[in-house]
Amino acid sequence: MPSLPNMPALVLNRILNDCDIRAIFSLRKVSRDLYAFIDEVIPCIHFTYIQIEVRIHDIRLILSNDQAIITIRYQHSDGNGCAVEFNDTKHILDKENFIEIFAKDLSLILKHQSPKTVLEVFSFQCWDHEDWYERQRGQRSWDCLSVIDNDETECLMKPLVGQISEKIAEQQVKCRALETYGIFPRHTKSILKLFRPGTLKHIKIYDPHRIRIENNEGYTSDEDYSVELDGIYDLEQWKQAEELMSPDLRNLIDDVIPAIHLTRIKIEVDAKAMCLTVANPQENIIIKYEKSMENPSKTLANDLELFIKFQKSQPLTIVKLEWRDSDYEQEGPLDDNAKELMLEMECNERQSMMDPLVDALSEISGSALNVKILETLGVFPWEVKPLLKLCRPGTLNCIRLFSPHKSKFVTFDCSDDPEDYSVDLDEIQEMEQWKQAKELNMLGFCVPPQVHVGSYAHFLKGTVFVRKLTVDDIFYLAQTFVESPNFDFFTITIPRCKNYSELSEVDWVTELNKKFETSAEASQDSDNHDWVIRSPERALRLRYYTPNTFNFTVKKE
């Protein structure tokens, strides 16, 4: 009876087709003849996740799909050979290099990956020394240990990446996400070349300094964590990816930021995480900071500060800060008590995330954010104040503050009392950024009576809602706008509410006619009342829409 390696190819093919990947890899280690045969005829395999763990003394290959997880361990044998541990069995391959064997196996797996199956994640990790605690007890210096770890890791990583690049053709790997942990960008770049541009959508780069020694509390210098990207951003794989994530952008700053002309920055906050997005028309970098991380607010603020530091001279188009409500599941309409409980829950969640972020942004100093538009949604003025302080006065052209009371349980038009939506500006109107801006839009809340209309009389364009308004306020704005050489339009509104008694107490038409007397030309149609106020240079039209809106525009003559 012939031995397995001597069986006809047809029989071996039938056997292989009935084997899972564990059995195939076991057979492959039996003899050189089977090794060569299986490399040629191995059936299609279907993996969705591949993880490589690089350790000082071995390499581990972890393969998984919906049915199984397989771990293969490669290490140098005590003799002159390679030890491969798989399926609780260790095989010794004489006179073989464990790095080369690993690279061949990985190449084989990728070569025979089913063309109908796209890898979801390819994870490449470099792990700590397993004898770290033993060395720590030896009281060797932190600096010495750091050098040892870096040198020994590099001695393994350089030939490993070289072998992988040699065995696997560029742009062969079809995968949606590449993750690296503890891998320096110079090695990530070589691995990234293997992926098919366009198919690769997500690039996640986690701290290259993934050594417990260097994560010690004494290891805190930003310069220590600064890592060049070695031109990785010139690869098509990088350019065509849709998302870049890194919890600590200090690893990327020195190289990637000067290569990007940013046009917008967005900070999104919800009950579970914060997200920093920096983008231009070509690239979109997203960094997520989970609430479970250590001090995510401080980390985000540090990253933002570095982006500001390396910003190009051309101003950003927009910086946006947004609070996102929790997506609660509701079964039918909520009664008043349920709404109150939901609002209280949202308030507590919001405060636990926004307060630390505001504090962290307040600690940024000496940086000028070169931006044209600042926009907020679901954020109160005192929360945006630190971000507004970072904006360069004069460059900041437009301020947009939208719906601080952003909640699915309340709407702006349904309150019995407009006071419910009055929001203190927290003296942001006294800042130079406010005074030198030219456009203002404040929607979804009321400016309280203590904020004088003169605070927004210098704007050339704008829309605001106010809690209260007097005839003297309207007259003051009209006189100011008509003298402003570049004024365009401004709308000021007392918001609708269920109780219109306060609005009906003022006969705006009669009172404004008295105030303007002969200094304005009055006219009216069925719904609107107009006054035209003139200066030597221009004419201003004031239009009153019943019952609560005043619109100022330049009258073309």
TrEMBL record:
Q: Which species is the source of this protein?
A: Caenorhabditis remanei
Q: Which SMART domains match?
A: FBOX
Name of protein? F-box domain-containing protein
Task: Using the record's annotation, list all stretches that form the F-box domain.
Answer: 1-52
According to the entry, what is the taxonomic lineage of the organism?
Answer: Eukaryota, Metazoa, Ecdysozoa, Nematoda, Chromadorea
**Annotated PROSITE patterns:** FBOX
Q: Which Pfam families match?
A: FTH (PF01827)
Tell me, which GO biological process terms does this entry list?
A: innate immune response
